[in-house]
């Protein structure tokens, strides 16, 4: 069973920063890549970031490039999403997910598991 738990969301003003965490025991192996995606009320899921340690691939969604950074700490099996210069349009529930390693830029099509999300609200 793949278990993923996102945390670290909250309320922040525009221009501020948050760091989300995802406890991901799957990082014990290279069988899975990790992605962050988000979903705002009434909107489609949107890919935010993808990282495959096995393939050495990192992909960011166009709307977050240059502002968000995905990183991993294999010692603690934790994936982070550093979010800088947050804007109101970044408000959503954020999820971490296990993705097939070879997904690359198509990672949203190859999500296999995800856990409970964490809510991020950015005020203007």
Task: Write up this protein.
This protein is mainly beta and 124 residues long. It has strands at residues 4-7, 10-13, 18-24, 33-39, 46-52, 57-60, 68-73, 78-83, 92-99, 111-114, 118-123. The N and C termini lie far apart (40 Å).
Gist?
The protein is mainly β.
Topology, element by element:
Elements: E1 4-7, E2 10-13, E3 18-24, E4 33-39, E5 46-52, E6 57-60, E7 68-73, E8 78-83, E9 92-99, E10 111-114, E11 118-123
Parallel strand pairs: 2-11
Antiparallel strand pairs: 1-3, 3-8, 4-5, 4-9, 5-6, 7-8, 9-10, 9-11
Low-confidence parts? none
**What is the gyration radius calculated from CA atoms?**
13 Å
Number of helical elements:
0
Summarize the helix and strand pattern as letters: EEEEEEEEEEE
Q: Helix fraction?
A: under 10%
Arithmetic mean of pLDDT: 94
Shape: globular
List how many beta strands DSSP finds. Answer: 11
**CA distance, first residue to last residue:** 40 Å
Major sheet, described briefly?
A: 7 strands, mixed
Q: How much of the sequence is in beta strands?
A: over 45%
**What class do helices, strands and sheet pairing give?**
mainly beta
